[in-house]
Amino acid sequence: MADKKDKPFFVGYLTAPDGLRSFLIGIGIGLVLLMAGVGLGIGATQDDPGNGAFRGDYGRQTVTGVMELTPYPVVRVTQGSEHVPEGRTLMLSAGGKQSLMNRVRDLDGQLVTVSGTILDRGELDMLQVRGGQNGIAPAEGDAPEMEREELGRWRIAGEICDGKCLAGAMRPGVGIAHKACANLCLIGDIPPVFVSTQPVEGSEFLLVVGPDGTIFPKSAYDLVAAYISVEGKVVRHGDLLVFHLEPDTAELVQ
Amino acid sequence: MMAAGLVIFAEYWLMIGGVVALLFLTIGIDRIDEDARGAYIFRPLLVPGVLLIWPLVLWRWYALETGRADETKRYKAVRGAHGLIAVGMALSIAIIIAFGLGIKQTWPDHIAPERLSEAGQ
Predict the structure, then answer these.
(1) ipTM score
(2) Which of residues 115-154 of A touch B (CB under 8 A)?
(3) How far is CA A123 from CA A108, A120, A204, A235, in A?
(4) For residue A4, what pLDDT is reported?
């Protein structure tokens, strides 16, 4: 018992006992160095997330175009804005992890005016549409006929991401958190995007739909955020390629 | 199918949680907590919690209704298990990281797109 009594005992609100002072200083400095090292190591080993971002600096963008349900809503722009040229095919989303599906159901093939904030990552962009009639409304005039070009069946390799985070809403990562985040977006019917290892007909990014032109099937959620090789039909909608993914043909690649 | 299965499981879990929240916050809470009687503003705040832990809510409701709840157990120290749990959690973190690194894929930029049928087909 005498030995135990003589042992130094740390009490937070009292001066540190002599026998523990050097130990505590060592632990303190060691922890700071360890955390700095871990932070440096994690930061240095991450892939460059690129320059995708919300382009608040562009200001609100308002464009007019023809609404197409692929079934994910896109606008074939006929009257552009400062940062959205005419002829562009813009993917659309609502705020957060929500799609516009319910708001555009009756607007397929119609001329519409859409307004919101651009997300931009190089050749991939998306418009996050404002709420209510300020965000999307029928426009006056007849909608011109928009052509689609069948580009045949392809086998392509790469990764399925959600189009919003990839375009700049978040910094795309790797692993289970990335997969969960992407799948939550897809559950909310945010348009999925296939990032191809090499350009397909000039485009690295393809909007993904189900094999029969349906929304992305739940059975394919396992394929999201994994590096895969998969087959499907490719259709050009303006400057956007739409990939009719066939989940049964998917293979993980190493 | 694992991801789709998890989504379906979560959907059913939350739907049942919604029913439990409706029943508990309109009927149950008045029966087991006299301090809650006549107080309503705070009840919507409990909905997110009930959605997640509805089995525990049902069990506590049952235990309190039937008088089977042993309130003394609620104050029993649980520190005895902390050491084991701490070691287990530390080990599981190491195992998860090792497993994650083991199955990490590399970007297959060597695989070029392959056209399987001509355009228009």
Answers:
(1) 0.72
(2) 149-154
(3) 25, 8, 8, 17
(4) 67
Cβ contacts of A120 within 8 Å, gap of 6 or more: A52, A53, A55, A167, A168
Q: Mark yes or no for CB contact B121/A197 under 8 Å.
A: no
Residue B12: helix, strand or coil by DSSP? helix
Cβ atoms A101, A70 nearer than 8 A? no
Q: Do A152 and B121 lie within an 8 Å CB cutoff?
A: yes
Per-residue pLDDT of A131-149, as tens digits, reads 888 899 999 888 888 889 9
**Would you call A69 an interface residue with chain B, using a CB distance cutoff of 8 Å?**
no
> What gap in Å lies between CA B88 and CA B81, rounded to an integer?
11
Task: Quote the pLDDT of residue B121.
Answer: 67
How far apart (Å, rounded) are the C-alpha atoms in residues B21 and B14?
A: 10
Q: At residue B42, what is the residue type?
A: F
B40 alpha-carbon distance from chain centroid: 25
Q: Is residue A1 over pLDDT 70?
A: no
Residue A159, both tokens: 């990764």
Distance from CA of B43 to the nearest CA of A (A): 27
Contacts with A, B 93-112, CB within 8 Å: 100, 104-112
Please give the pLDDT value at position A3: 62
Say how far apart CA A197 and CA A138 lie, in whole Å: 38
Band of residue A50 on the pLDDT scale cut at 50, 70, 90: confident
For residue A140, give the amino acid letter. E
- Please, which residues have CB within 8 angstroms of residue B18's CB and are 6 or more apart in sequence? B51
- Contacts of residue B64, Cβ cutoff 8 Å, sequence gap at least 6: B32
**Is residue A47's pLDDT more than 80?**
no
Q: Tell me the three state secondary structure of residue A4.
A: helix
